[in-house]
Amino acid sequence: MPTAERLLIRTDASPTIGAGHVMRCLALAQQWRIEGRRVTFACSELPAVFVDRLRSEGCKVVIFDAEAGSPDDAATTLKLAHDLDAVVVADGYRFSVDYQRAVYGKARALLVFDDFGQIGAYQADLILDQNLGTSEDIYVDRPPNCMLLLGPEYVMLRREFLDTAQNRSEVSPAVCNVLVTTGGADVGGFAIRILDVLEEIPEPLNITVVVGGASSGTGPIEVRARNSHHRVRSIENAANMAQLMAEADLAVSTAGSTVWELAYLGVPAVIGVVAENQRLGAAALERSGAAVAFDGMTTSAAEELRQVIRLVCGDQPRRSAMIKASQGMIDGMGAARVVSTVIGNLV
Q1: By C-alpha distance, which of 157, 128, 152 is closest to 345?
Q2: DSSP designation for 152
Q3: Do 312 and 319 contact (CB within 8 A), yes or no?
Q4: Which option is the CATH number for 163-326: 3.40.50.2000, 2.60.40.420, 3.20.170.30, 3.40.50.2300?
Q5: I want to staple 255 with a disulfide (CB 3.0 to 4.6 A). Which of 157, 217, 268, 282 is the partner?
Q6: Where are the domains of the chain?
């Protein structure tokens, strides 16, 4: 098999860091495999549910025992890259410039994912930042031949979203179906906090709560659901996430990579910042009109969320405007663009 056919993705998922890195890399892996190319995921932390998911997609998964971002990690990754003669993808903020330096120029090529320059300095062949509002100025500390892929045109969506029709043209007169999603890990019990606020809305709602495979499960949510005057169901690690989004009149989500899936499907969204690395992206999405953001890390987060939900639920024109702002922001070709760039320029 030609050497350009192999991709080695170094990333992790856990209750602490969530699953966003793995899931956006899965979108890249799906596109890479369209023509029978091979993908290997190398992970030091990965819950079993994600191991199963990646293998079901035809990817090989290697779990190794090394501290993420450490010299041992870099050496293990480089050995795998040599064995496979593969392009290396590193997605995670723990892969510092020292880690990159151990791989850059020694593997076939190195592609580094980042969000608004979280890593700070780079030794890579290509940097990918899919966020709205990112810029070249953030990535000045990089090799002169390092390519940049910046902005929502490089948002990589998994096949389930690309296969879902984008037919949302009119907003519902009232919010009836609410999707609550907290990403791969429900950081700080965020889902329960959202349910507490939704409980104050007197009109009956159909609420679907989705928690990811890196979370602690749906037990506390199910207890809360039994005492709610709304109709609440909980789903762990949903296999039909695109369908659930398409059915929602409103989504309340953490401000991770899920926001791009919601925007692609035109779902009005209230997004909560629960990690510092989400702040700039959430603010940019709010400025675009596609979402309404709130700070989920402050002591007044519940009150801010309460005000935002009341605003959005009671304002049909605002929700209509959110749908229109989302349309056209993401065309679904991001993964194809990234693969084309890698194949055409880095190997």
Answers
A1: 128
A2: G
A3: yes
A4: 3.40.50.2000
A5: 282
A6: 3-157+331-346, 163-326
| C-alpha dist (Å) from residue 58 to 45, 53, 142 | 19, 9, 34
CB contact burial 32-55 (16+ within 10 A = b; e otherwise):
bbeeebbbbbbbbbbbebbbebbe
| Two tokens, residue 44 | 């030091």
pTM above 0.90, yes or no: yes
Between CA 338 and CA 156 the distance in angstroms is: 8
Please name the fold of domain 3-157+331-346. Rossmann fold (3.40.50)
Range of 54-68, 186-200, 269-283 with top mean pLDDT:
54-68
Same CATH fold assignment for domains 3-157+331-346 and 163-326: yes
What is the CA 32 to chain-centroid distance, rounded? Answer: 18
Alpha helices in 227-295 (DSSP H): 241-246, 258-264, 279-288
Residue 4 pLDDT greater than 90, yes or no: no
Residue 165, classified by CB atoms within 10 Å of its CB into exposed (0-12), middle (13-18) or buried (19+), is exposed
For the segment 176-223, what is each residue's pLDDT rounded down to a tens digit? 999 999 876 666 678 888 999 999 999 999 999 998 765 555 677 888
Of the candidates 141, 77, 148, the residue with the CA atom closest to the CA atom of residue 112 = 148
Angle between helices 48-56 and 20-32 (to 10 degrees): 10
Q: Supply the DSSP string of 101-118, one letter for each residue.
A: HHHTTTSSEEEEE-STTS
235 bridge partner residues: 210
